[in-house]
């Protein structure tokens, strides 16, 4: 497992497979947004507990437990936790440069 923290309050544990990267996040109340960014990997967000606002190419979606969003490669997106939240993120192919770490 690789420990990451892309912004303060976003504690993540990442693991690489052959064709994907899986990240489990625990997000504290009041944590800052993950700023708008893009990357060459396709990405899926799945909320386990709590609530997220996800902007995909400028369009906002609210995600609660069991909800998911898929973000295409190189599509601008940002994420805000609206309350303490646990979420899973899957990037494919493997995301070699992880935010909040030297990995």
Largest sheet: 6 strands, antiparallel
Structural class, from secondary structure content? mainly beta
Give the overall pLDDT as a whole number: 94
Overall strand count: 10
Using the CA coordinates, give the radius of gyration. Answer: 12 Å
Distance between the termini: 11 Å
- Low-confidence residue ranges: none
Description of the molecule:
By secondary structure, the chain is mainly β. It has strands at about 1-5, 10-15, 20-25, 35, 40-50, 50-55, 60-65, 70, 75-80, 85-90. Strands 1-2-3-10-5-8 form a six-stranded antiparallel β-sheet, with no helix packed on it. A four-stranded antiparallel β-sheet has the order 4-9-6-7, with no helix packed on it. Strand 6 and strand 7 form a beta hairpin. The chain is globular.
Throw out a few tags for this protein.
103 residues, mainly beta, four-stranded antiparallel sheet, 10 strands, 0% helix, six-stranded antiparallel sheet
């Amino acid at each position: 497992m690789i420990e990451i923290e892309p912004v303060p309050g976003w504690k993540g544990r990442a693991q690489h497979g052959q064709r994907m990267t899986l990240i489990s996040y625990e997000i504290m109340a009041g944590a800052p947004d993950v700023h708008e960014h893009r990357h060459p990997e396709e990405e899926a967000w799945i909320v386990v507990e709590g609530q997220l606002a996800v902007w995909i190419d400028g369009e906002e979606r609210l995600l609660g437990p069991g909800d998911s969003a898929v973000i295409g490669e190189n599509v601008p997106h940002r994420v805000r936790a609206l309350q303490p939240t646990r979420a899973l993120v899957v990037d494919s192919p493997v995301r070699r440069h992880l935010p909040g770490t030297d990995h």
